[in-house]
Amino acid sequence: MNDSILNLVGNTPLVKAQRIITKPGVELYFKLEGQNPGGSVKDRAAYNMIKSALDRGDIDKNTKLIEATSGNTGIALAMIAGIFGLDIELVMPENSTIERVQTMKAYGAKVILTSADDGIEGSRDYAEDKMKSGDYFMLNQFGNDDNWKAHYQTTGPEIWNDTDHKITHFVSSMGTTGTIMGTSTYMKEKNKNIQIVGVQPTDDSRIPGIRKWPEAYLPKIFDPRKVDRTLEVSEKEAVIMTRRLAEEEGIFAGMSSGGAAVAAVRLCNELESGLVVSIVCDRGDRYLSSDLFE
């Protein structure tokens, strides 16, 4: 028994690919972050950012939180804020899927939709302006060390232990970059030869959850020295692989997970031997109103 749903954040399963890659000597494992209670890897960062801010006294029950999000972080923050009895306002582009908006509202958050043309950058600008009024506190997932530290404390150790210390390559989509920064920091301490592979979209692709940021919006927590290699994937490749994950592996996930899997399979095909772990960021049910699975 668990005395709080917060105890279910982390310790997600690691499962071996059965059909997508079948190369002798090379193993590909998927870290199923959709098994977190809020349905994505962002539960880890949201929990650590809110709890750490409360522990330090940066915020209290009277603080109004505001955060820009493309989806999963917002859902996680809405869930965690609700558990701690905090008010939160989430800002996201108006072309976000209805499932994401409704899930945030279900957890008790106020949701503000900004212009789709301005993207997540427009949402970030809106949240920054509101914070300057002095009435709000922004956790700022893009510049908050508690984001990447969540993965240093949990994701990295889980993968290290669950692979019996045999992991050779770690693959992660890059959005806020918290997952790859924290996991890389931990892995390199354990074995500096583990290769950390980041995934970005090609210039003409839009893949929710994976970004190639303009310089002005580059997450402050990102340190390029912690990524050994960056692979680019196209929107078409990500869509096809997301569907394959569901059909061939029984892994129902979003497009950023498909993008990471494209890079992971490409990597596996280069290797003579190795154990590759790829992050499956979330669940596919929050994309059903889109054309991802049509």
UniProtKB/TrEMBL annotation:
Main EC class the enzyme belongs to: transferase
Cofactor: pyridoxal 5'-phosphate
Keywords: Amino-acid biosynthesis, Cysteine biosynthesis, Pyridoxal phosphate, Transferase
CDD domains: CBS_like (cd01561)
Sequence positions bearing N6-(pyridoxal phosphate)lysine: 42
Transferase keyword on record: yes
GO biological process: cysteine biosynthetic process from serine
Pathway: Amino-acid biosynthesis; L-cysteine biosynthesis; L-cysteine from L-serine: step 2/2
Record-listed pyridoxal 5'-phosphate binding positions: 72, 175-179, 256
EC number(s) reported in the record: 2.5.1.47
GO molecular function: cysteine synthase activity
Residue ranges occupied by any Tryptophan synthase beta chain-like PALP domain in the UniProt entry: 6-282
Record carries keyword Amino-acid biosynthesis: yes
Catalytically driven reaction(s): O-acetyl-L-serine + hydrogen sulfide = L-cysteine + acetate
Residues annotated as signal peptide: none
Similarity comment text for this entry: Belongs to the cysteine synthase/cystathionine beta-synthase family.
Name by which UniProt lists this protein: Cysteine synthase
